[in-house]
Amino acid sequence: MLKKLAFAKIVSIFVLSPINKWMHMETQDLQTIEYDYLVVIHPDAQVEHDVTHYKAIIAQELGAPGKAFSPVYIPLFRSSFPSKYESDFIDVLTRLSGEQGAFTVYTSRIDHVNAGSDKHNIYVNVANPRPVAALHKSILSAFELEEQGYQPHITLARGLSSDAFDRVQKQLNNRLFVRSFYCHSFLLLRKPLGSSDAYEAVHEFCFGKDDPHDGPLYYHAA
């Protein structure tokens, strides 16, 4: 009986001790950290390799080799919020992905767009944007958000000055990039808001209506 009372007293001391209160406060602080969340489609290894090759060409031309290894993906949705809401966010995306059917993504060429005063982006276009755009729309609808214009793409370089763009464009102008890959999932990435760190993978959402026989018509053509 005395041993049980002594154990109870030790537990009581532990629960009320300053170190345990500090640990509780530390957990609360971690839950309030705000993250930059990004939902993306990640291509297969072959397409990722080929995109990285063109990123390397651009990086070498601009003297920035580190840029060649930036992540390869099609962005779907981006938001920022405290990490305590992450599990709710994942629950919504899990339900959505369970109703999603798999599809094939096709690309055809390397293109570019003006992104403001003296800024240019170079990207790989998605030749069949409809299924990707539909997935993007489903995500927005799940969070009761309105569409604001969306063009599926894989970024090769972003925010290039006119001078840098002209140097790169000579090598990539009208370059074909005919590829395809089977999309049966999307990824949730995150990094601390305002950080220059790389995104880390948080969760993969596999489609509930995946048909493994409905693969791409071609993988590599140019």
Automatic annotation (TrEMBL):
Source species, domain of life: Bacteria
InterPro entries, sorted: 2H_phosphoesterase_YjcG-like (IPR050580), Cyclic_Pdiesterase (IPR009097)
Pfam families: 2_5_RNA_ligase2
SUPFAM superfamilies for this protein: LigT-like (SSF55144)
Protein known as: 2'-5' RNA ligase
Source organism: Chitinophaga caeni
